[in-house]
Structure formats: structure tokens, C-alpha cells
Amino acid sequence: MYLFTMPMNKARKTIVLATAAAALAVAAGAAAGTNLSLVAYSTPKTVLGKIIQAFQQTPAGQGVTFSQSYGASTDQARAVANGLRADVVFLSTGDDVNLLVDQGLVDPNWSRQADGGIAADTVVVFAVRNGNPKHIKGWADLVRPGVQVVTPNPFSSGSAKWNILAAYGAERRLGKTDPQATAYVQQLFRHVVSQDTSGRNATNTFLSGKGDVLITYESEAQAARQAGQNLQYVIPRQTMLIELPIAVLESSPSKNVANTFIRFVKSPPAQELFAQYGFRPVDRKVLAKYADRFPSRPGIFRIDDRYLGGWRRADKVWFDPSKGRMAKIEQAVGGPTAG
Amino acid sequence: MARRAGLRSVAVVYLLAVLLGPLAMVFYRAFGQGVRPLWVALTDANTVHAFRLTLEITAIAVPVNTVFGVVCALAIVRRRFPGAGIVNALVDLPLALSPVVVGLMLFLLYGRTGWFGPSLAGHGVQVLFATPSLVLATIFVSLPFVAREVVPTLRELGDEQEQAAYTLGASGRQAFWRITLPSIRWAVVYGVVLTTARSLGEYGAVAVVSGHIEGKTETATLRVQDYYENFNTAGAYGIAIVLAAISVLVLLALTLLRPKEGA
Amino acid sequence: MTTFLSVVVLLPIAALVWSSGSHGRHAFWSAVTAPEAVAALKLTLGASLLVAAVNAVVGTITAWVLVRDDFTGRSLMNAVIDLPFALPTIVGGLTLLTLYGPRSPLGLDLAYTRTAVVLALLFETLPFVVRTVQPVLHELDREAEEAARSLGAHEGRVFRSIVLPNILPGILSGVALAFARAVGEIGAIVLVSGNLPFRTEVAAVFVFNHIQSGDENGAAAVAVVLLALAFGVLLAVGGLRHLATRHERGT
Fold first, then answer.
1. What is the CB neighbour count within 10 angstroms for residue B234?
2. CATH superfamily of the C32-246 domain
């Protein structure tokens, strides 16, 4: 706009316009005929399909074809680590992206990009029975006598790690010490009646009638509701922000186009689509627009919170298969020495 | 007669509880929202491709395992070589491996850092996340059935007829085609049916090695998982019904084609 | 045949065994003797043996009914026996959950218990004994039975002395298959058992969890032990058959 209000002679204007058009044409032309491989986790399949279509309508996305793969986040990461061709990955935890970083497939500085490398967010929520008969509002309610909890197993489902860290982080936020908060998690697991191998299976368990409360994610609950399932949920005051990372693969032969796509995913049109399909946009303006659907909470915290210390630390402390806290908790709750 | 009715009711009650009940539920769920969502799900381009891929894989795995099964059974039963008992147990072993482990093993062999992965990749051969690994996984998990069916029948039959044929001047091949094969026809039929059904329904190992690339490496069972993940019950159960129907058709075709039973 | 067997079966298993040992004997041993692993292995073995035994009896009865009996619906029954295979395991699990879970129309709630593990396995292994006994029954020479009956033997005696020894190899074959399958089954179980460590977690789920959390060597170790145990049982079943049919050999 500034260009056109400047006092300029006609020739210059024409040259500028022509150059801009040429640049666009080159960008569009350069991208046309490219095929991008998108490897993502399962829940965003529908919204990513829409975002891809929208991207293909833009000049930069004209003529770009996509090959799409959806599966459990950690499975997808491992597949890419074992040779599955990918240009862009969109996973459910930074942990899974770190798996690729460790293999040299993703730039270690991926989380230093705009928005910390995150494309969308969601939060940990409690799905409850209709009418919330057991009046479940916060984490303390989950360990009341008689309350049965459903949550996926963090060892089989990478996404389930969010649930554990949310429980621990919430307690720390409420002022408990490290040992007290860890004891809470152990207490919580005494109430767990099913440890499914994935978030979706846990949702299925809950929908089949088992348990009083399901620890799940807002995006999952919204997806269920949009599919016609009657799933009521509550967002506790202290809850964890689940940040969904998107990253480009270093080995991608079409890095420029891949990065263009990633930028598009973080742009308002795509963020609007995320919001419509149950994901919290990272774009603040769009998030504000959908504030009714995504209520804020005073106690939202992130993986980088000082009580958690980021993925690498949390992984080591909590999820080491033999020495981590979860392994000890599982043994204490179910093992031969359990009460 | 009373005994007969008694046995019959045991079988029927058991089958009702363990098999027919769940099957009825599959139909109920598939048609639960009417025919339209089912139709939309089944005619989706990626789903049609998935069916085609599954049938291609089955069309390779079944003949391979049938030939292997018959040859292996003959070797185990007729040729008393040392270690026959071990080979016999080895043939069943693929079943004992959890499908996830099968996937892991294929990663160990053909992955980016696997035993053969890098050298194969150097020659432009892609095994994982492409059809070859799907075929390998399917062959592996459906390996034992034909052998397992044929072995007991061969033992039951003995080889007198073949011996008689040899003394009459028949060659090994003639004896095989004219005498052995017809006498094990039921076993081969059921073995093929089991192998086919298993290949159609294989999920776990294939899920690990396929890469889930829509329109390329998704088999029908992976589409079921896909529909399930997206709460599309009609689609998930609908595909299951088609797979079941294919399996039943194969059984019917084979039992109708077999030479009639007779004295 | 041996090349095929080696490439398709032995090579992957070799890779697995190698992986399980690649962190040393100590790591292998501690992975395998971890309390959770032991509990999972015990549950798997117990459930698989139970299921194999149930199948031996009911599978034989079903095969008998399908071959010797005649009633309306028999062909239909025969046609659907293989469906537990053709259906992806997830479908089996989901339908069992609907039928026998918290919202069961039958009023039963067996889900998230060890019973659910057995139920899922019974579904997945149903075709085995039936299909291995059927062909043998088809080929069975009825003359010996007729002769025995005409000599005054009652049905039970005829079955025990004449039919059973002949179909025993078939039964044992099916039992071996059912056991092997039960040991490795995961797809239907994960949906109905709740996978609670030390209580309803089977070995396959334990292995799966360790693969998922990056402990591939630990997973391989337990998988190898499970494989060895299964191999042992399969050899034993083969030996049983050898013993049971020794009257036939030596011609």
C-alpha cells in the first residue's frame, strides 16, 4: 500500500509491480509440481486435510501435492526415524520431535522458531458422565474414595505423558512439594481402572461405560463431540497446555516449500480452521475470537514450567522405563508389595 | 440322538457366545446410522485403494504359504530327518510372536540403521513403508496354517497308497499330483481359507511397517483403524464386514470347487 | 523350503535375539526378571494354556458337529468359523467390549478383568482346533467305528478307542496353533482388559510398552523369553503327539 501512495513516476511503479508479480509467479511456479509428505498424529487428520486444501488455493501452494500419513504420534516419529519419507511432521509432543532430533533428522533449534515451533495447542481436561454426577471439578476430586479414573498408559502412549505431567504440575502449582506431588500421582494411579494403549482407546473405554472420569485432551473431546459422541468435559483450574509441534525434516528435498507450508499453518486462515475443529490457535487474535469455545484458566502451565523443566528432563525423571518415577509408581500400585 | 443334540447345543451355545454374538454386533454397528454413511466410507478413494492393496498382498501371501505349507508338511511327515520335530515347532513360531514384535524385527532388518536397510536403500530398493514389507509381514504371520492343516491329515493317511503307486511304476510327481494332493484336499482347502482370512485381517505387524501413507500403503485393516480414530464407526465396521464377506466367499468358492467327497 | 524358512522366519528371529542381547547379559537378565515382566509372562502363559485347553474340548466338539451332524444352519456355522481371523483384531475387541462390557445387553460386566483376557483369546483362537480336526474327521475311515458298534461297543467307547486316537494329532495341531496365537495376541486384548500392570497386563502389551518408550532391547528380551517358552510348549505338544501315535509307526 505504501508503495502506491509514494510520489513515484509511472515507470518505477510499473517496474515494482512487475517485479512483485514475477516474484509471486516464481514462487508459485517453483512450488508447482512439488510433493510434500506430511506425517502427523491421528487427531488432527480432518483439520489438516482442510488446511492443505486451503494452502493449495494460495499462490504459494498452487500445484503442490501432498502425501499424508496419520498414526499414533510416537509410532510416526519412530517410522520417520526408521526411514519413512517425510518433509513435515506434526506430532503431539515435543518429546517425539526430540526423538527425530536425536537421529539428526530435525534441526535441534526447531523449538526456537516463531511460536516455539508449535502449530496449535490444547489442554488437559476431565471428561465426565452426563450431568457430572460425581461433581468432578479439580484434581483433588480424582482421588476421592470411589472415583474411578481412566487414562492411557504413558509408556504405550506418548501423549499420555501430558496427563501425568499435568497431574504433577497442578499439585506443584497448588503449593505441594515435590514428594507430595509425586505421592499424589501415585494416589491417582490407585484410582485408575484402565490404562489404555492410546488416547483414543481410553476415550473408547470411557464411552463404553467404564470409569467416572477420563483424563483426556480438549481436542480429543471436541473431536468426539463433533463426531456425534456425547462427551461432557470439565477444564480444571490447574491444567497443562499441550503444545503440538510442527517441524521440517532436514533431509527434505523441498525444504523451502515445506517451510512455506509451515508458515501457512501458523497463519490466520489455518489457525481459524484449527479453532473450528477443536484446537486452540497459537495466533492470539484468532484465539481471542474463539474465547467462548476455549475458556482460559488461571492455572495453565507449560512443559517449560520450572516444576517440569522441559521434555528432556521430564522424560528422564518420570518416564525412564526402569528408573523413572512412573515405573516405580506402577510397581507400588500394582506390584507384589502393593497394598 | 440325545448325545448328538447335547453335543450340538454345546457347540452352538459356545459359538453364539464367542463368535456369533460379536459378529451380529459388527453388523449392528455397521448399519447403525443407516446405509449412507456406510456407503460413503466404503467408496472413499483411499478405502478402495486400501481394499485393492489388501487383496494384492493376500494374492501373494496365500500361494506362497500354500506351496511352503504343503512342501513343509510332506518333509516333516514323510521324510524322517533329524530335527523334524524342531522344524515342526518352528513353523508355528511366527504365530507366537506378537505382531508388534514382528514389526520391530522388520525394523531391525530393513530400517534406516538395520542389518540390510542401508545397503538396500543404496540400491534403490525400498522395503519398509512400501508394499514389500507389507507382504513380508503378512507372509510371516500367516505362515503356519497350511502346514498345520496338512500335517495331521498326512499322518492320518499314511503313505500306503503312494507306496503302491511306486511299485506300479509311478514317478514321484505323478504320485504327488494324483494321490497325495487329492487326499489332502480338505486340509489344503481349510489351510488356504485360514491363510486368506489371516492375510485379510492382519493389522498389528502391518501397522508398524506400513507408514500409513494414505492412498499408498494403507491396507483395509489400517483403514479400519483410521476410521476408528476418527469416530467413524460405520466406516470401521463396514470395512470389517467386507473383509468378512471376502473370507466367506473364498471358503465357499473353495468348498464348491473341491472334488466331491466319495468312497 | 529350508531357505524359505530361514529367510522368512529365522532371520527376523535372529535379529530379535541379537537385539535382546546387545546390551549384555546383565541387561537381558534384569529386563526379564523385572517384577512387572514376570507378572505379565505369568498371566500370558496361564491364559494361553487355559484357552488352548478349552479350545481342545470345544473345538473338537464343534468340528464333530460340523462334520458328522446335519442341521439347518450348519453350513452357515461352518462358513463363519474363520471370521475371527478375517476381522481386524480391533473389531473383535470392540464387539466383545460392547457385548460383555459395562453396557452389556446381557447384563454381564466382564471387561477390565483377567476373564476379559481369556474371552478375547477365545475369540481370536476359535478357528484353530475346529479347522485342524475337520479335515482329519473328513478322511476318517468309518469302517472301524461301524465294526466296533456292531460288536456292541457304546458310543463313548467307540469315540475313545477308535476316533480319538486318530483325531488326536489334529487336536494337538490345533492346540499348538491356539496356544501360539494366544501368546502373541495384543489387538483384541488391549481394548477389553484395561492393561493394568501386574493385574491384567499381558506380556505382549508389556513388550509393546517398552518398544513405545524406546526400550527396544528390554522389549526384545522379554519377547525372546516369551518365544522360548512358546517354543518349549510347541515342542512338548509335538512330543505328546509323537507318544500318542507311536502305535502307528514302525511299519
1. 22
2. MetI-like (1.10.3720.10)
